[in-house]
Design goal:
single chain, alpha+beta, Beta-Lactamase, Helix Hairpins, Heat Shock Protein 90, 3 domains, five-stranded antiparallel beta sheet, five-stranded mixed beta sheet, 14 strands, rod-shaped
Length: about 475
Amino acid sequence: MTRLGLRARVVAAAAVAIVAAVVLLALAVPALLARQLEDSLDGTLRARAVDVARLAASSPDLLTEPGALEGRLSGGSLLVQVLDRRGRIVARSSALGIRVLPQEGAARSALADRRPAYADASLGGEAIRLYAAPLGELGASQAAGGAVLVAGTTAETRDTLASTRRLVLLVALLAAALGAGLATLLARRALRPLTRLSSGARAIGDTGDASQRLPTPAAADEVGELAVTLNAMLASLERAREAERRFVGDASHELRTPLTALRGNVDYLARHGPDAAVLRDLEADAARLSGLLDDLLALAREDAAAPVRRDSVDAREVVDGKGGGSIGAADEPIDLAEIARAAAGDDPLIDVEAEPAPVLGERHSLERAAGNLVRNARRHGPPGGRIAVVAERDGDRARLSVADEGPGLSSAEAAHAFERFWRGPSARGEGSGLGLAIVRAIAERHGGSVRVDGSRFTLELPAAGFQASFKDRPYNPCP
């Protein structure tokens, strides 16, 4: 089954709405007009009956005078007939000719029950509206105790209603046609930007080029907002694709070095037999490769932006080492200072200063971030220099900083410190260049940030109880 396009549906809906409105109007207007015309005719008949009753009471002899009972109604004649108490005709208007107004129904009610009444009747095949009212019983007039009947033709009412219906029908048809035309024009103009957006999106989909952008309408309406949102999404996709391309290239380059060394050492062992130095090199290359793969997996997990469990973690407990260090346990603190000391062996050069600074987050991720900062300080600080680990709370923020005694990074180097696979010119050892990038990814996924000032690296997170600002904050996996 073929579905109608959006433009056709808009036009059809507008046309149906207009037709429905006009149909209701076509039903309501004649009904209201008929009611008003009937009320007007009834009022005229009653007013004429009152005049005749007054005449019968004040000057009964004038009832039989020529022209005394004549009346006019919008160009038509009122028909008047006066009856005595026995229903005999006392007087009548000349417009009746030889015709006699019906004396059933309303006339009988006026004579027998002494109550006025309206009735629809027929006179010589012509539809009329009849009003019958009782006359006073006092006086010597023949009409005393009788009734007055006043009637008027309904032909003019019918003609007026017929003309009105034809006019409303004509207007309805014109309004429906005009409305459909205007709806078509407006729908075409309103949907033209959507058509351009659709064409642009189709072109981007065909080429796979996320660097292209959709055309933005000049009008600042919902379509323009949609175009801006889609372009922002394309920009995000472009950044993600570029980051993925750069990541794959850098990872391939970084993996190639240890793999080449491994293959060379294995080939040497195959040709020359066991050698202690070569075996140590093999072990070092395997460890380096394992560490690099571990960092890559950690960064990939952070890029996946898994929902943060936001377990309550106290940074003071983390660095003071009061917990068992069970990774991922919901009710046990993580001792990052203990992790740093383990990385340094029995090195007594790490100083810990902490105050209560609770945060909400994933323990194992925060453990890795703090551990990376400590290892970074050991790797880049001066040999024999001390490392300071400080945990503190400042209002709604909790901070964990790690500093060594080295000169630190320059402002130009600090701008690249958290990029993936970046290593400073003074870096020592076989680091992967992913440690600080992992710290940044963890910090941002927890609604925080990480910064460097010289040799001090500071991880800043929302303190426990102040999480509303980042619960719904989008995480950018490709900074």
